[in-house]
Amino acid sequence: MRWLRRNLLGIIAILVLIYLFIPIAVVAILSFNKPSGKFNISWTQFSTDAWTNLCGVPGVCSSFATSIQIGIISTVVATALGTMIAFALVRYRFRGRSTTNLLIFLPMATPEVVMGSSLLALFLNLRFPLGQWTVIIAHIMFIISFVVVTVKARLQGLDPRLEEAARDLYADPKSTFRYVTLPLVAPGIAGAALLGFSLSFDDFIISYFNAGTLVTFPIFIWGAAQRGIPVQVNALATLVFVIALLVVLSSQLVNYRRRKKLMST
Amino acid sequence: MVVAKRRSRTGYLLLFPGMTWLAIFFAIPFVTLFMTSLQEPVPGKMGKYQAGFQLSNYTNAMAEYWPQFLRSFIYAGIATLLALVIAYPLAYFIAMKGGKWRPLLLVLVIAPSFASFLLRTYAWRTILADEGPITSFFNALHLLPDDRILNTGIAVVAGLTYNFLPFMILPLYAALEKIDPRLIEASSDLYSSAVATFRKITWPLSLPGVVAGTLLTFIPAAGDYINAELLGSTKDRMIGNVIQTNFIEFRDYPTASALSFVLMAAILVMVFTYIRRAGTEDLL
């Protein structure tokens, strides 16, 4: 009983973590299922059919490729624009700072349905054809803020003495930036890009409003939900999850080792 | 930050492209949304609209869809409260007892978002299935009004709570991590009970995290329609469902825009109340 009281918090914390992963376990387990009807909801029989034939259902792989392409373009542009804003916020003084902060914060605090519908209202009024480009424009818009926040945090955590040292050693501003600042901020930028890509890749609501007839991976899943989601979708989602988790965990490990090495020297 | 901030043209140049993008594709659309919400039908042409000043679009839309509005706020409110109760112990554990495992534990909190939002939501159809263990358990206790969870409001709230939980955990963690553990030690050294320490020290100091987490959970939950569509029945539709169907399927742009505008206005009121208390610099 005393043991339970002392460890109650830890037990609850572990239970909450398990709770976070239950649906993912369901998705992964059902990727090895051979559903009896069209709906892959309850366990029937073990099968690796979906994994050996990932593109076996029409539309799955093409929508997956579309989402990857949109994710890459949106992430590259949004990371560049957001990183520039983060530098301006931390390193420069300018007029209209609170308006700028507000305009960066609001996209993160606006329900997706409002952003999606208002952007669609804009495109409809301009008679701008809906498709891949409208989705990319929308994704860049909502990713920028997340990039700013991530890179800004990294920049604020930098030790200013490192850049001072470079300047004291007669490095011009350009090479200080190129050889000192940028490498130090790079992990923050990489993290922001990873976050941006995962937001873009997984976005449904904003994309659906602005996609026209374009089918991204989430839009494919949404359409399939009515008539039964193919097992391949579960397999691909599991694959994405595992890859993303491995990328993040290995970067954590690299960080951890580097810190340990720094401590010991 | 010790670095002297420079005032030069470079700062504006760095801001310009990104802020222009946000102005054109985030801010200006609200103007078009508002204009669209006031449009009137073109006489004689079904489904065509022209510029107008139809304030009745708002009154009509609200008269017809106020139940969905109310339901959205109630569902989002319950989900936010549940998320706070579930998230707090985990955030507290990571912040206070996490030690060197903190970065790993935080990765585990974010990791679920790497799996598709739609599929994770859909997975709750399996977990909450009618013959499943959870539904059977509650049915054995005669706790379910409809003898089922799936396709009821309970499933929608459960889905919302689950999906937006990381948005509650992370700000809570950020606030709890800043608390000096010596304050808590001091409190217990002075013979304060664990409950009193929590009530008088930990909870008040974690309030910024509570406010931020509540906003970041409530706002997306109130606008969400994925959970209502995948887990609820037609009786559990939220305002997001209405906006989506009116915009994309019925092409009744003025009504959908009016509803969208009202939803945004309600949320802006909440955000600005928060900003007046905390200031914009703390938002990011």
Overview of the structural elements:
The complex is a heterodimer of chains A (265) and B (284). Chain A is an all-alpha fold and 265 residues long. Chain A contains eleven helices and no strands. Chain A has helices at residues 2-30, 49-52, 60-91, 97-109, 112-126, 132-156, 160-168, 173-202, 205-210, 217-227, 231-264. In chain A, α3 (60-91) crosses α10 and α6 (132-156) packs across α8 (173-202). The longest helix of chain A is centred in the last third of the chain and has 34 residues, at 231-264. Chain B is mainly α and 284 residues long. Chain B has a single domain (65-283), classed as Orthogonal Bundle (MetI-like fold), CATH 1.10.3720. In chain B, α7 packs antiparallel against α9 (194-223) and α9 runs antiparallel to α12 (253-278). The interface between A and B is large, with 92 and 93 residues.
- Determine the CATH superfamily of chain B: MetI-like
Assign a percent range to the helix content of chain A.
Answer: over 70%
The strand count of chain B comes to 2
CATH T-level fold name of the largest domain in chain A? MetI-like fold
Largest sheet of chain A: none
Strand order of the largest sheet of chain B: 1-2
Short précis:
The complex is a heterodimer of chains A (265) and B (284). Chain A is mainly alpha-helical.
What's the arrangement of secondary structure elements?
The complex is a heterodimer of chains A (265) and B (284).
Chain A: H1 2-30, H2 49-52, H3 60-91, H4 97-109, H5 112-126, H6 132-156, H7 160-168, H8 173-202, H9 205-210, H10 217-227, H11 231-264
Chain B: H1 9-37, E1 40-41, E2 49-50, H2 56-97, H3 102-110, H4 117-127, H5 133-140, H6 153-163, H7 165-177, H8 181-189, H9 194-223, H10 226-231, H11 239-249, H12 253-278
